[in-house]
Write a structure and sequence with these properties.
Elements (H helix, E strand, L loop, with lengths): L4 E12 L2 E13 L4 E5 L6 H9 L6 E6 L2 E2 L7 E4 L11 H11 L4 H14 L15 H14 L4 E5 L7 H18 L2 E5 L3 H7 L2 E5 L6 E6 L11 H24 L1
Parallel strand pairs: 3-8, 3-9, 6-7, 7-8
Antiparallel strand pairs: 1-2, 1-4, 4-5, 9-10
Length: 257
Amino acid sequence: MNHKLEIRNLSKTFSTEEGEMMALENISLEVKPAEFLCIIGPSGCGKTTLLRMVAGLDHPSSGEIILDGKEVKGPSPDRGMVFQEFSLFPWRTVLKNVEFGLEIKKVGNKARREIAERYIELVGLRGFENCYPYELSGGMKQRVAIARALATEPSILLMDEPFGSVDAQTRNILQEELLRIWKRTKKTILFVTHSVDEAVYLSDRVVVMSVRPGCLVKCLDVNIPRPRKRTSMEANEFREKLLMLLSLERSKACISV
């Protein structure tokens, strides 16, 4: 089944000691079924806040989020979340970490193990089922987190800077692995990143957000054939376009201070 996400006129305000602070303002966005969409923008523009609201972890001040025709009211297994921090349970093995969401869904022991093993193999960790997080590298931990998010068969995968805490070489490898998994599972992916290179390499479309209060500045199709070369002329030209947009937004922030 293809899954469609709609964000309609979304705004978010926080109460602070200085008064009300608007983090997001009137965001409307449609994420197409099986699309890989990246969100970039200046630090503090509300990218993570937006993702958390799609996940149901925060609630909008106004507007609505619709997934498969139903309004998002709170967390649900139909939205898998992968954070920058690996957020694994240190007392659980790889297998038991991946099984966690299935336990919450009360999937039986045999089926739970079979599903977990399938996704462990999908992320390339077969043979590490009985290892604990402290025995794994950073990249391996993030693979476990991805397997755990996928195991509950979510409609959409939400990823918040998932490769931000690993070294550059591991990051490139994980990007390639994620594209392989995306192609195989046909999941809809909403991916937040600070890296323009990452957005160009991974996505079908890139959304550029403004300085706070965050709103959508531009939504650009990445019309570069896959598999992509990171240093191709097309990639470099698209990267320059995104960097110019971000530079303009940062200059607005400086002017407003």
